[in-house]
Amino acid sequence: MRQRKAIRTTLGELIVAVADEVMPIMRNPSGAYKVVSFILSDLLSQQARVPKRSRQKYLSYFAEE
């Protein structure tokens, strides 16, 4: 079994690190902040990830009638 390595950081440090990586590849600074926002939102979301097989099993619940 693989051990996890705990990384201790603050939210501010995470935001700065993501922004530092995104800024060089974006031409528009306001667009870069939107990309940073989307990345952080995805990282911090509490939404459970459902395995693909489970999604197929419950697709009927989401189908339009």
Explain the overall architecture.
The protein is mainly α and 65 residues long. The chain has one domain (11-62). Helix content is 58%, strand content 0%. It has helices at residues 11-22, 29-44, 52-57, 59-62. The longest helix is centred in the middle third of the chain and has 16 residues, at 29-44. It is elongated. Residues 61-65 have low confidence and may be disordered.
Question: How would you describe this structure in keywords?
Answer:
mainly alpha; 58% helix; elongated; 65 residues
How many domains make up the coordinates? 1
Mean pLDDT: 77
Q: What's the N-to-C terminus distance?
A: 45 Å
Order of helices and strands, N to C? HHHH
Spatial shape: elongated
Taking the sheet with the most strands, its summary is:
none
> Segments where pLDDT lies below 50 for 5+ residues?
61-65
Estimate percent helicity.
55-70%
Overall SS class: mainly alpha
User: Count of helices?
Assistant: 4
Query: Approximately how much beta-strand content do the residues carry?
Result: under 5%
Radius of gyration: 18 Å
What is the strand tally?
Answer: 0
At a glance:
This protein has 65 residues and is an all-alpha fold. The chain is built from 4 helices and no strands. It has helices spanning 11-22, 29-44, 52-57, 59-62.
